[in-house]
Amino acid sequence: MNKTKTLETDRLILRKITIDDAEGLYKNWASDEQTNKYIGYKLHYNVEQTKKLIYKWISEYYSGAIRWCVELKETHEIIGMIHATTNKLQDKSTQVGYSYGSKFWGNGYATEALEKVIAYLFENCDFYIVESVFYSWNEASGRVMEKAGMRKDAELRSRAIHQETGERGSIIYYSITKDEYEKMKNK
Asked: What Cα–Cα distance (Å) separates residue 15 from each residue in 76, 112, 121, 122?
């Protein structure tokens, strides 16, 4: 059963990714050099590369992947994506990852989407822990996690190597438990 349901915030729509999203994801995300400094995907040089990735993601829906395309509600412009892993079900934990085109940074969209996804995962998917991870050279991602109510769990020093500079950095883990979420929600 696929758990990716359409979610809405004041400014965003989070929905399943379709092949029709290829042009928007390519233009605003996959070909964005600034964005690709922080994610594990290589920069796309044409929309066909983005289509191949989307076909892979669509096939993963059948095995339970939880993945959303994020678009602006007002214009329907695609600004990025957010997903939750489903391979840690035995301890009721999931790891959330997200990435947005650089021209959309600094508007609070990442926090808005992450807050909505955290609520969905706790309220509809029976997870107890939602975690996320970022590299030390992407401190803005850590601030998004903090604003969404997550707290720092651990820092694995010098465990990451930047793909462009070759410099070492830390892998930093954040999480929120269902109990912490409930307390935050009821304030």
From this structure: 11, 14, 14, 18
